Every structure is written in structure tokens, then in C-alpha cells.
Amino acid sequence: MAEKELMAKTYDPKQIEDRLYSKWVEKRYFHAEVDETKKPFTIVIPPPNITGQLHMGHALDNTMQDILIRFKRMQGYNALWQPGTDHASIATEAKIVETLKKEGTSKEELGREKFLERAWAWKKEYGGRIVSQLKKLGSSCDWERERFTMDEGCNKAVTEVFTKLYDKGWIYKGSRIVNWCPVCQTSISDAEVNYEEQQGHFWHIKYPFIEADGSISKTRFLEFATTRPETMLGDTGIAVNPDDERYSDIVGGYVWLPFVDRKIPIIADSYVEKDFGTGVVKITPAHDPNDFEVGKRHNLPEINILNDDATINENGGKFAGMDRYEARKQIVKELDEMGLLVRIEDYSHNVGTCYRCHSTVEPMIKKQWFVKMDEMIKPAVNGVKTGDIKLVPERMDKTYFNWTDNIRDWCISRQLWWGHRIPAYYCDDCGEIVVSKDAPAKCPKCGSAHLTQDPDTLDTWFSSALWPFSTLGWPERTKDLEYFYPTDVLVTGYDIIFFWVIRMIFSGYEQMGEKPFHTVLFHGLVRDDQGRKMSKSLGNGIDPLEVIDKYGADALRFMLITGNAPGNDMRFYWSRVEAARNFANKVWNASRFIMMNMQQMKDAGIVVDFEASIDSIKSSLKDADKWILSKMNDVTKEVTEDLEKFELGIAAQKVYDFIWEELCDWYDG
Fold first, then answer.
1. CB 45, CB 481: distance < 8 Å
2. Do 214 and 289 fall into the same domain?
3. Least confident of 141-155, 188-202, 208-222, 636-650
4. Helix (H, G, I), strand (E, B), or coil: what is residue 378?
5. Which CATH number fits the domain that encloses residue 302?
6. How confident is the model at residue 2 (pLDDT cuts 50, 70, 90)?
7. Which pairing describes strands 526-527 and 457-458: parallel, antiparallel, or unpaired?
8. For FRET with 165, which of 5, 361, 511, 645 sits at 20 to 30 Å CA-CA?
9. CA dihedral for 448, 458, 107, 50, sign (positive or negative)
10. For residue 619, with 0-12 CB atoms within 10 Å meaning exposed, 13-18 middle and 19 or more buried, which class applies?
């Protein structure tokens, strides 16, 4: 055999990776079936959005999962890496709405049925794009088992959970403060709100007292400060601390609310901090979660002053129709003219923004569907406290408990069309609500056949929370479910611990009666070489596919894993990709050298007896051979231990050091 036919002199990933991956898939090397003679090991993929494009976070996340699943296969486990994609209701609907706008139409003009046809067509066209990109990365998922969060099986699971929790009294419909995105035009959960520190102002305002004769005082005022002056249009009370002696004589009195000509009561509530500002807080129950609770305690009216697009509604009087910020400017201007603006103070504070469109979220009172969390969260808290579930790194426990200890009821309804439709039906004649897995033929209360299904869909994370068991056939008790559940390790970014991880944990305990996985391995973000988060606005994003095209998937994967530590952010350096590419080439050349020598020995008539006894082989070893074998045994043991401890970066570095510095540089066997 000629040398050039044996192996090329330089490793060319383009000639190897795609061909090798296709062979793996064709040979079904990634496929797992129930086999009682083997111990299972299961990882469920964090399902990427069907609108998604592979980014560095995906590349890191899937590289880590791939290392663990291949490691367990090598150890003899029946290893299943369960893949799938997420319907991503808000993101997908926004994409389709944007497309319709370019076509000169809208989802309302199209109608729900036609809109959903477009959505499924979108999924068909773009849904497989990120899957093909994950394959390009070399991900050894069991693609024969690929699932989608809105496929028939997942929909059945979602309906089962909703009806069970409703019958249990843990899902209810009620009017509460929700996070409203005026751009996406839907409610979002607390976990979907990003808080950003923004420069703003404290507007110090004073309201005139209402005198005993009912007149508006020209000399007596009650001063407070607010970061949102426009919400004063919805004020229904003003509060002081019950222990604040400065105001004890005015509790029970009233002040006058400008612009809407309304008198509002002065109440005493321990929510108010005596030592903060003036010790006076305006209460707007329809636009602040804390004010909402205060309002409930004092039976204050709830007046919503905003439309869904964040313009002022009819309750805002002369400001009706104005944008919220336009109204703010005008209100401040007129308060100043009236002598009711005391001063403006610069102030830096956290502002809630939508995690999808980044617009400022408005707390608004809305009638929505909620999951009661006070009881459901308890097993999830206990699971981590007792070690039934281990978070890696351990410092994530603090983040976990900080959220679970302050959890509020989960708003699960979304004002969207793309998603799992809420299985609730309203009687058009008597108003009865019927929650059912199947559409009821008639109202159980009045017998009417006129029933209308709730137009809202469920939060994307409601279905994603069921992922570890819905993908294995639940609610049916399938063999796959009994064998592969609970799963073993979940690999995910620390940024979705609230979105997804905690929801899977409490859903697993509630629906399955046991944990969904025993370990959660968190990784950090992949930042640019200056330590900045990669984003479109900064223009510093790096496409993994471009890296793969230039250097190969192995180089990208090795770069991402070396120097990586659980839970820590990492920086992307092109120089490290090149170093990883050089390492791949080093391994290639070492293999080529071995194969060339084996061929030369064969050509020279030297027979290598692989069937020889161990003793015979040992006796033929030179000192250098014994040294390198000893080193290899040591590194094999250490790397195995590191992988078991999820120190993937350390394991990769040890492999690198052994091959480059010891096998290739020193060993002369």
C-alpha cells in the first residue's frame, strides 16, 4: 500500500467529519433500546427553539452532553441522549407576525386557523435547521427518538397535567398582577423578566390634603417619591407605616389626586418603610405587585390605567391615548405648573424587561391562569436540600433556594395562538368553566351546547417542564419510561435555572413521584475575548458553523471544553481554536506514524502476534514502553475520575498534556 493511500499528511476535517458522522448514524451507534441486561444512562437535551440558530452556548452545552454520553457508552451503559426541539411560542409567533407584516397583513386578518397553518409550515421549513447544525457539531443524540414539544404525545401530557392540577385545586383562574409585555402583547412569568440597572429618576410629588369641610387644601400636603409618575392616575390609596409617629394623626384622612379629581384614603400598613424617603408610599393596586397585596388588605379599588400596548386608557382622563412615556413627561410638566412637583432626583434602579424583545415590562392586573406554587415547590426544595438532586457547582444551591423561597404563583396563560391551547371551555349561556381533556358536548351546569374554548395558550415552559418524562411516553406507563426514567444528568446554562430546571424538578416530583434527574451540571456563558456577552447589538457574536467550516468540529469542541469549569463563564479566543486544530493534527500525525510503521513491518515480513500471551508481550517491552504504558494508565484513571466529577475541562487538559508532551514529545518506542 502506498504511503499516500494510507493516511493524508495533514488532518482535513472536511474530508472526515461528515462522512464519519453519517456512518455512525447509518450504523445506529447512537440508538438505545430497553435492555434489562444493561444499566441505563439518560440525558435529555435542553430542546433548542425551532426559531433558533446554533450559537456558542448551544455548542458548549451539547459538547458537554456529548462527552458524558460517549463516556458512559464506553463504560458499557445503555446510554440514551434524548433529542428534540421546542415550539418557543413567543419567539416563533413573533417571527411569523413579522413575516405577515412584510406581506401587508396580520395574524388577526389571517384568522387563528390559517395562522396556525402558517406556524406549522414555519416549523416544517425551519424546525429541522438547528437539528442539522447539532449534527454538524457531532452530537451523538438518538435521532430516531427526536421529539417536539407540540407533538401529539407532548400535547397529551400537557393536557393530562393541566386537568390533574386543576382538579387538585392547584391551577386556578384569577385576577392578579402579571408581567405584561406591551410589544409581545402577552403576559410572561417572573422567570421571563430580566432586570437591568437603568438610570432613571425619583420624582418627588405632593398631594394636597382634603380638609374636614371637603375642600382641597392649599397649605397642607403629603409628599412621596415615585419612579413611575404616570401610574398616579391609578392611585387608590396612600400609605404610611402604622408605627410612624409623624403621620399617626392623619391615618383615616384623604388626599386629592390631581388630573382625575379623586380623593384617596391615607392608610397605615407595615409594608411602608419608615426610614426610606419620606415614609409615604402611593398605592397603585393595578400596577404594582406589592401595592396589589396592600390594596387587598385595605379593600382598595383596582384601577388599570393602561391599554395592552402601554398607552393610557380611558381611566387616565385627558391623557388617554398617550404613550406611557409621553404621558409621564406631560404629567410631570403639569404637576410642576400646579406647584405639586417638589424636585427630581437622579436614581439608578432595576427595571424589568422582556427576555425576548427587551422592552420594559408593565406590571398590570389581568385575569389569567395560575399554578399555585406554595405546596408544589416543597418537594423540589427538599430534593436539593437532602441531596436527592445535586447541583454542580454547589454554589448554585444558593441561587436555587433564593428563588424557591420567594416563589409566587406561576402565571401560565399566554395571549398567543402558537402553543398548547388551554383545555378550558366556557359556557356561552351561563358562564360555567369546564376543564376537560376533551371538548365537552354540553355544559354540565345548564346543559347548553354553546361552549367556547379559552383562546389563550400555555407558557412554553409548562410543556418543557414535562420533558424528562413526556419524551419517554408519559402519561402512558411505557417500557421506555420505566427503564430510562429518572434520567441521570441534566446539562444546562445557569441562565435558565428558573425558566426550566426548577420547573422540571417540581413537575417530576409531582407527576412521577420522584426526581427527574440526580445531577444538574451548570455551565456558564461563552463570552468574547474581551469578556463581553455575545449579542447582536454589540456585533460580537461568533457563528459556530463558521468555526467548524474553517477548523472542524473537533477543534471547536476541544477549545470549548479545555479551560471550562462548571458554572463559570469562559472567553472565546481564535488562538485557542487554532491550538485545538493543531492538537487534532498532532493526534492525526501520531496515528499516521503508527500506521506507517505497522505497514512497514508488514512489508518487511515482520509478523506482529496480537494473540501472544501477556507474559510474552511484557518480556518484549523496553523501558520506554513500560514508562508510557504506566503514564497512560495513570492518565486513564485520572481522566475517568475527573469525568465522574464533571471536571470536563481538567480531563481534556490531561489528555492534551499526555498526548502532546509525553506520547509525542518524549516516547521514542
1. no
2. yes
3. 188-202
4. helix
5. 3.90.740.10
6. very low
7. unpaired
8. 361
9. negative
10. exposed
Residue 423 inside a domain? The answer is: no
User: Do 67 and 113 belong to one domain?
Assistant: yes
Domain end, chosen from 299, 329, 354, is at 354
Q: Which residues pair with 267 in a beta bridge?
A: 239
Strands 171-181 and 362-371, bridge-based pairing: antiparallel
Vertex 106: Cα angle to 100 and 108 (nearest 5): 145
Bridge partner list, 148: 85
CB-side neighbour CA atoms (13 Å) of 463: 32
C-alpha cell read off for 28: 445506529
Q: Do 340 and 195 sit in the same domain of this protein?
A: yes
Query: CA of 339: how far to CAs of 170, 204, 336, in Å?
Result: 50, 12, 5
Nearest Cα neighbor of 654 from 548, 562, 560 is: 562
Judged on CB neighbours under 10 Å (0-12, 13-18, 19+), 336 is middle
Amino acid at 74: M
pLDDT of residue 669: 61
State how far the Cα of 84 lies from the Cα of 435, in Å rounded to an integer.
29
Grid coordinates of 508: 417530576
pLDDT per position as a tens digit, 236-273: 999 999 999 999 999 999 999 999 999 999 999 999 99
The answer to whether residue 198 sits within a structural domain is: yes
Which candidate, 117, 125, 126, places its Cα nearest to that of 50? 126
Task: Please report, for the domain that includes residue 60, its CATH number.
Answer: 3.40.50.620
Q: Going by C-beta distance under 8 Å and a sequence separation of 6 or more, which residues neighbour residue 56?
A: 526, 534, 541, 542, 544, 560, 572
Cell numbers of 531, please? Answer: 469578556
- Co-location of 99 and 232 in the same domain: no
- Reading the block at residue 394, the C-alpha cell is 454547589
In this structure, what C-alpha cell is assigned to residue 297?
388588605
Which residue would you say has higher pLDDT here, 384 or 276? 384
Q: Nearest CA to 583 among 548, 558, 565? A: 558
Domain stop point among 297, 323, 354:
354
Residues 59 and 157 in one domain: yes
Which string of DSSP letters, residue by residue, matches 459-511?
-HHHHHTTHHHHTTTTTS--HHHHHH-S--EEEEEGGGIIIIIHHHHHHHHHH
Sign of CA dihedral 566, 571, 576, 581: positive
User: Does residue 557 belong to any structural domain of this protein?
Assistant: no
Which residue in the block uniquely carries the three cell numbers 430542546?
Answer: 47
Count how many domains the chain has. 3
455 close to 483: Cβ distance less than 8 angstroms: no
CA–CA gap between residue 35 and residue 50 (Å, rounded): 32
Range of the structural domain that residue 132 is part of: 31-161+460-523
**pLDDT exceeds cutoff 60 at 610:** no
- pLDDT the model gives residue 605: 62
| Residue 137, domain member (yes or no) | yes
145-192: pLDDT as tens digits: 999 999 999 999 999 999 999 999 999 999 999 999 999 888 888 878
Q: How far apart are the first and last CA of the chain?
A: 23
Of the listed ranges 118-127, 454-463, 468-477, the one predicted with least confidence: 118-127
Same domain for 136 and 201, yes or no, is no
Please say if the pLDDT value at position 4 is more than 50: no
| 204/342 same-domain check | yes
Q: How far, in Å, CA of 173 to CA of 164, rounded? A: 15
Strand 424-427's sheet: what is its strand order?
433-435, 424-427, 451-453
Residues 339 and 215 in one domain: yes
Which residues share a beta bridge with 40? 78
Query: Residue 612: is its pLDDT beyond 70?
Result: no
| Count of other CB atoms within 10 angstroms of residue 427 | 21
Is-contact 608 15, C-beta < 8 A? no
